[in-house]
Amino acid sequence: MTTEIPPVAKQVPTERTHHGDTVVDEYAWLAAKDDPEMIAHLRAENAYTEERTAHLEELRGTLFEETRRRTQETDLSVPTRKGGYWYYTRTVEGQQYGVHCRRAVRDGETEPPVSADGAPLDGEEVLLDGNLLAEGHDFFSLGAFDVSPDGRWLAYSTDFSGDERFTLRVKDLSTGEVLPDEVPDTSYGIAWSADASVLFYVTVDDAWRPNRVWRHLIGSPAAEDVVVHQEDDERFWVGVELTRSEKFILIDSHSKITSEVRVIPAGNPTGEPALVAPRRQGVEYSVEHHGHRFLILHNHDAEDFALAFTSADAPGDWVPLIPHTPGTRLESVDAFADHLVVSLRSNGLTGLRVLPVGGGDGHDIDFPEPIYSVGLDSNPEYRTRQVRLRYASLVSPDSVYDYDLVTRVLVLRRRKPVRPGPDGREYDPADYEQHRDWALADDGTRVPISLVCRAGTPRDGSAPCVIYGYGSYEASMDPWFSIARLSLLDRGVIFAVAHIRGGGELGRRWYDEGKLLAKKNTFTDFVACARHLAGSGWTSTDRLVARGASAGGLLMGAVANLAPEAFTGIVAQVPFVDALTSILDPSLPLTVTEWEEWGNPLEDPEVYAYMKSYTPYENVAAVDYPAILAVTSLNDTRVLYHEPAKWIARLRAVAPRGDYLLKTEMGAGHGGPSGRYDSWREEAFINAWILDRLKA
Length: 696
Fold this sequence. Notes:
Strand order of the largest sheet: 31-32-34-33-35-36-37-38
Helix content: 10-25%
Low-confidence stretches: none
Oligomer: single chain
Mean pLDDT: 96
Shape: globular
C-alpha cells in the first residue's frame, strides 16, 4: 500500500461563539478519543510519516547506535546516605528501566561506596526493579518513590498508560511483601508521618487538578482513608511533602501567582492542618522548617523574592533574613541543621549561596565555566556538613559533587561517562565550544542565546543550526548536556538555546514580560534570535531548524505563522497549538489553573482577541511554511493529542504545498516513550529528520 498521498482529515464544521465572535472548527471531531475513525486517521498519519521518512531508516539506526555506544548502559548513581543506608539507582545493559537499591552503611564508612563498571554493590537490597514492574506493558512510569523515615516501608506509584493517573502501593522492605492497601488514581506527591504509621497522598478532580490531600493508615483499606485538605478554588492545586527535618507535613496550595501553606506535626499525623499565612492574591511563598522557625521564601513587595522567617510554634510576622535584590531571583531555600543553602539565579546563570546559621559571612559557590547549570541534588539528611550538588554545561557531562559547607571544599564524586564515539575517540570537552550571544528584540530588549558547536565550526553562515526554545511558566532552559546531541555537533550542526521572555532566566520580570497580554514577546524574541543567528554568521535561514515542546510547541506554531521564511524546518513536540480552544474549555485538564498564565478568554474579551491573534491553529494562512514535524502522544493529559492532529490537518487544507508530518505515540503520555531505548529511538527519529532538512 502506498502512502505517498498525505491523509486528508474529513471536515465537519463546528461553530462556537464567544464575545460576539463566531469561529468554525472543521476538525473538532478529532477530539473524540474513542472514535474508531479518529484512531484510523492517526494510524494513517503514522503510516504516511513512516513512508515519507523511510529513506532515513539507516540514519536513524546509526544515530541510535551512536547514542547507545556513547552511553555506559550498565551504570550506578552516586549513593546517597539516609540514616543507616546508602540509596542508589543502577541500570543494566539491555534493560529499559532503572533498578532502585540500597545497601547498609558499614562501620566507619563515610564516603559513598563505588562499584566497577556499574556492577551491583556488595550486599545490596533491591527495593524496586522497574523492568519487572514494566513487564507486559508498553509504557511504565514511577510517580512516587519514598522510603519511610524508619526505613521499613517503601511507598511507590505506577502509571502504565502515560496519563499520569498513578496507583499507589506500599511495600514492606523487611519481607518484600507488597501490602494489600492499594490506592488507585493518585497524583504526584506523598509524605510519611514520623512513625511511618500514616501516609499522606494526593488525588485529582475531573479536570485533572490535584485538589485533595488524604491520610492513609498503613494496613487499612483505602476506603477508610480521610480527606485532610480539599482545595475548592479551581485556580489552585495542592501538594504534600515531609520536611527534611521530618518534623512537619507541608500541604501547599498554589496557583500560578498565589500560594498558601498548612502544616501538620509529623509526630501527630491526625492533627488538624495549621495555616502558616493566609493567601493573598499575587503573593507566593514557600515554607522550609528549620529548628524553632519556618523559613519563608516570598515575593511580597519583592519581585525577585526575599527570605524571611517566622515562629514554627506560632507563625506570625515575617522577619527579614535576606532582603530583596532586584535582578537576583531567589528560587528556593534548603535548611540543614547548621547551614542554609539558597538556590538563586543572576545574570542568566544559576547559583548556590551558603549561609551559616550561627553567624558569619555567607558565600557563593564558584564554578569555572562561563555557561553552566548548578543545583542541589538529593540531600535527605538534616544534620550534615556536606551537601550533594548536580552540575552540567553544554560541554560538561552531568556531574555530581559533594560540597563541604565548613571547609568549602568541592569534591567531584562522578561525571557521567561518555564512551568513545564512532571514530573510537574518547570524549573531550575541548573538542567543542560553548558561547553566549545576545539578540536584539523588536522592542530593544537584549535576549541571551547559549550555543554549542564543534571547535572550529565556521562563522560564515554555512553551518547548519538547531535553535531550541520554550518561554513559558518561568521555566528556564538552563544549559544541559546531551549525549544524543553529540551526533548533531559531530556532523557540523550548531545547537542554540534562545532564552526568551516567558521563561525565568533573567528573573521574575523576564517571566512577566512573556505572559498574559505580553505573550507575543515570547514569539518575537525567538524570531529575533533566529534572525540574529542567520545575520551574524552562525548560520543561514535555509540551514536553520527550530525545535520546541509543549508550551515550546505553541512557540513553534506561533513562529511558523509569524516568520515562516526564517526556518527550513520546525519540530513541534506535544505542541500546545490549539491554545485558545483549550483555554476556553474549563472541563479540560488544567485549563482553569492556566488562566493566570494566559488569561481567561471566557470572561475577558481582550484576552480572547489577544489569544486568537497568536494561537497557531487559528492563524494558519495560505503561505509557504517550512517543513513541519509534529510529535504527540495519544494518552497525553497535559497537551491533548488532537491539538497537533487538528493543526496538521488545517495546514494541509489551507497551505497544501507544505511538507507536514504527524507522528503519534499510541501508548504514551506527555513525555513520550518511557523506556530509555525507546526514548533514544524517538530522539534518533527526530534528529534524522533534522539532519535531512539541514542537509548535514
